Structure formats: structure tokens, C-alpha cells
Amino acid sequence: MDFTALLLSRLQFAFTVSFHIVFPSFTIGLAAWLTVLEALHLATGRPAYRLVFEFWLKIFGVAFGLGVVSGVVMGFQFGTNWSEFSRMSGPIQGVLLSYETFTAFALEASFFGVLLFGRRKVAPWFYLFSTAMVALGTTFSAFWIMVNNSWMQVPVGYVVENGVYAPTDWARIIFSPVVWVRFPHMLLASYLTCAFCVAATGAWYLLRGDFAAEARIMLRMGLYLAAVLVPVQIFFGHLTGDYVHDYQPAKFAAIEGRWHDEQPASEVLLAIPDPATESDRYAISVPVLGSLIGSLSLTSKEVGLASFPAEDRPPVLIPFFTFRIMVGCGLAMLALAWVGTYLGRKGRLERNRPLLWLIFLSFPLPFVAILTGWFTAEVGRQPWAVYGVLRTADAVTPFLTTRAAATSLTVYGAIYGFIFAFGVLYIHRLLRAGPAGGLVLPPAAAVPDRPMSVVDQPLPAGARYVPAGE
Hints:
Layout: H1 3-44, H2 47-72, H3 74-80, H4 83-117, H5 124-153, E1 158-161, E2 164-167, H6 170-174, H7 179-208, H8 212-247, H9 249-256, E3 267-274, E4 279-286, H10 289-295, H11 317-345, H12 353-361, H13 364-381, E5 384-386, E6 390-391, H14 392-395, H15 402-433
Antiparallel strand pairs: 1-2, 3-4, 5-6
Helix pairs in contact: 1-2, 1-5, 1-7, 1-13, 1-15, 2-8, 2-15, 3-4, 4-5, 5-7, 7-8, 7-12, 7-13, 8-9, 8-11, 9-11, 9-13, 11-13
């Protein structure tokens, strides 16, 4: 086995996953919010809801397309770089990915065209139904991916037959308690990503003095949603920590920066872990808190990394710091959401320019939290591809060379860099244009085989708002 090829393959998968996850984490939440906007428009008849819907539908279309493009190639890596992993886990993971196709992709493909082109061709209730089905499709996609990854984290419901993992209990695999902790955690993260992006956009428009009515809808709805969801997300984050504590004690010890068994255990708030000396430098810790967090006990014994063989320990620095960055982002979002919601209820939010600036600058926080949370989960799982069962070093393609791995990593980097630059610039262009004063109906040139024509047309002169159903 070529260890350099192994390292490059890990870097390549980490790069493509990190790039890809940015787009689904945004569009899953945005699809759900579009459903809420459409329902509010039908219930109230308020034109501003329709304008905001049409505005974010354009951005959803671009982000959704970029997510599909960046995600398609990831499947090929299982065959090119991780063929042993595919061979051994294929009877389980191949089926789960097929379920994603049959449920998530089927719903999205069936109703996404209605969402883009069917406003004037279907009844208002059916258009709302189509929007909800697209949102449901994105949710199904997240569900099956989390089922797949959760099986890698805590493999259940299988036996080893002829060197492969054969499923014996699909109910245990799909309805594992780990799935029903991690899936809501990821889904809430997507909703919060949408909420803060929407609120940040509303704050930006208010700072510029543009689109006042629509900006207030974005700002207040985004902050109100975040104010409710962040505490729920923190709760599910704690439940996720419980599963790591129970099923992946080495990862939990790395996250905590705990090198030796402690009873009761302290909680290391900040430090610089030093693997060479198996100690934490400049540690700031709180006595007993580690036992309380880990086991809800004041006297429990918590295991340290030194209790595990060196070859079974995850890298410490990455999960230790990424976990704390994720928690810091969550606390910052909680503070902004609660303060913004309070001032919004008092009618003082729109006049508080320092807070508007903070809300505007907060839009990267949920993306950073998702990426660092993902790094914590995936790097902390090492050295296992399937935890406790299949080592990452044994999952790589045996005949993969350093040259081949380096070439594919370079090509992926160049292509993804171009996609990211295009996507960011195009979405920025749409954001700068804002929700136009008239309704942007699909222009005459917009047809299903040219979906970008929906977002790439200037507003026609004399465009007017068209009530739903006209």
C-alpha cells in the first residue's frame, strides 16, 4: 500500500465533501423556508411574501445546481480511491445510496420543474404542494446520507460473509438510535444556515436602505427562526455527544483533550494538546464538569486517550479545536438571535446599525459550524473507515499510485475552484440585484432545458406583480 496515495485520497475526499456540504446545508433549509413563504402568501395575499419567495427561488436554483454538480463526482471516488471500502461495505451502503435516489432525487426531479416553471400552469395549492415536495426531497437526501454515515460511525445490523459486510437487519441500520440523534442535528444545522443567511441578507438591505419591506421580512423571520432552533440544536448536540461518549470513547477523549483517566473528570475549556508528552499545555479547565457533561454524574470515571493503543487513537488537535470552534459559533448565533429577536419585538432592531452589521457579518457562522462539526465527526473516527471494523488504511484501493492520486486531487481542486468562484459570483450578483419591485415571471425564453434562463434575465420594463393563480 502506498501511504502517500492514502493521504492524498483522504485529502481529496475531505476536500470534495467539505466543498459539497456547503450547498446542501443551505438548500435543505432554504427549500423548507420557501414552503413557509408560499404558504404565508396564500394565507395572507401579501405581495411582499411572493416577492421574497421569487427572489430566494432564484438563489435556491443556483445553489441546488451547484450542490448536484459538486456531489455527483463524489460517488466515483468510492470506485477509484476507495475500492476496498466499496467492495466490503457495498451491500449496505450501495443500497442506502439507492434509497436516496429512489426517494430524494425522485421527488426533487418530479417537482423542481413545477417550482421553476409551473407558477402560471398549475393551481396555487398544487404549486405549494410542489414546493413542499421539493423540501421533502432535500430532507430525504439528508436522511439517507446520515443513515449511511451513521452506520460508518456505529455499524449495526450486519454480519461478515466472504469478506463483505452483509445486512441482516435493515430496521436496526435505518432506525438506529444514532441516526435519530445525528439526522435531526444535521437537519437543524441546515435550517439555521438558511435562517442566518436570510437574516444577514435582510440586515444588508436595511443597511443599504433598499427593499425595506422585504428586508424586514427576511431579517425578522430569520432571527425568530434561529432564536427557536439554536437551543433545540444545542440539545441535539448534547445527545450527539452522548452517543460519542458511549460508542466512540477514543473520539470523546480526543475532543475533550483528556489524556489520562480521571475520576471525577475536569472539563478542558481551552488548551494546546501535545501528543508527544500526552498532556495539555496552557490548559484552562473546570473541575468535575467533565464527569457531569460525559455521564451526568459528579463522580463518574472518564476514560483518557492513554487507555487506548496508540494505533487506535484519533488525531487529537483537529477534533479538539474544531469542536470548540463549532460550539463558539453556536453560542455566537444564539446571542445574535436572542438579542435581535428581543429588539425586534421592541421595534428597535431596524435602527440598531451596530447590531445590523453584526447580523450581516454573521452569515459565515453556520457554514463554519457545519464544517467544523463534520471535521470533528470524521477526523475523530480515525483510524477507522467503519468504526472498529475497517481501518482507513485497509479501505483504500490497493494499486492506487501517488501519481494517480495527486493528479485526481489537482483536477478536482481546479474544477471545484471554478465551480465555487462561479457560484459565489453569480449568487452575489443576485443578492445585489435584490427582490425586484415587480414580480419576476419566467421570461418567454425560459424553458425547462435552459433552467439558468430563469435567473439570468433582467426584469422587463413595466413588470407587475401577478397574484397567485392569475
